Amino acid sequence: MTRHGKNCTAGAVYTYHEKKKDTAASGYGTQSVRLGKDAIKDFDCCCLSLQPCHSPVVTPDGYLYEKQAILEYILHQKTEIAKKMKAYEKQKQAQKSTSQLESKSEERERVERFKSKEDSIVSKPINPFKSVKGKGSEGTVDSSGETSTASTSSQNLPSFWIPSLTPEAKPTLLKKPSKVVMCPMSGRPIKMNELITVRFTPLDPSLDRVALINRQDRYVCAVTRDVLGNSVPCAVLRPSGTVVTQECVEKLIKKDMIDPVSGDKLSEKDIIPLQRGGTGFSGSGVQLSAKEARPVMQV
Fold it and tell me: Do 264 and 271 contact (CB within 8 A), yes or no?
């Protein structure tokens, strides 16, 4: 069997390439594409602004942010939470007042029913062969002593065409918002006092910030002087905020668990693996595939 070309229309086999091209042109089915290196941020860029950090801070989960960007995000989230809480409290007060009015109306109806029953009581002797009208204007007493009202005999049947009986759109009930600000990357709670200042070691200390950003290799490990990049696993030491390679952590720092810059004693929580971007290769260990869900054609 000969090999079919990509645009072969005379073949009897519906190839994978033809199926993929027809799916993309039809507008149905889930589209999947692999991201390239140009679509992934560098290890020293902010997760919000996607630009090289000037004052970098890192969360306990290892996500790097620009200090100004993450603080603005936290303040914005707190403002939105305050607005949602105010709307929830307003809804709660409205529900409370509505329930009070309903309880008052039920109490009033209960009193009216009691008064109507009291008015229907007759003190004169009743002829068992005749029905006697009571004092109530809307009820009659039969031979068995039971009252029958006109309202119970006529039932109000629901009708869609009557304006008073048509369904109404009720307001959506708001749920009580959480007061915890979540990290935009990890989805876990984030606080200002948990942010750790990061200090990168530049490759050439004589260069200014603009010249340093224009270079491809900008920072090195504070201990081994290895060049840092997306392909190099890095870690942040909490006491000093310095960035070192993961290899340096495994081979040097974990032997005595002492910060080589500040000299402080380290624990396992003080070594924070830095979340890095991908390299575009399959072995980078980062999710590099993007998917777009589209309508599915059903038979």
Answer: no
